[in-house]
Amino acid sequence: MKRINYILIAIAFIIIVLGFVLMAGGTNTLEYNPEIFSFRRITLAPIMCITGFILMVAGIMIKTKDE
């Protein structure tokens, strides 16, 4: 694997971690909190995670011209 593959994998890892951080809920589980249904947790975070996983696969599968 070449340098570009490692860069793609590192970017993908950061995007995946950021997506899971955005998806994280509050600490209080004893009462109902409507914040769990926000755009950030329901839409944005899963899209970021899926994008990160796709980039991860691309970083692993892409072959450079030197190979």
Poorly predicted runs of 5 or more residues: none
Relative strand content: under 5%
From the helix content, strand content and strand pairing, which structural class follows? mainly alpha
State the order of secondary-structure elements, H for helix, E for strand: HH
Alpha-carbon Rg, integer: 16 Å
Shape designation: elongated
- What's the N-to-C terminus distance? 8 Å
Number of strands: 0
- Main sheet? none
Helix content: 55-70%
Q: Kindly state the mean pLDDT as a whole number?
A: 89
Structure in words:
The chain has 67 residues and is mostly helical. The protein has one domain. It is 66% helix and 0% strand. It is built from two helices and no strands. Helix 1 runs antiparallel to helix 2. The protein is elongated, with a radius of gyration of 16 Å.
In short:
The protein is an all-alpha fold and 67 residues long.
Highlighted features:
mainly alpha, elongated
SSE topology sketch:
Blueprint: H1 3-23, H2 39-61
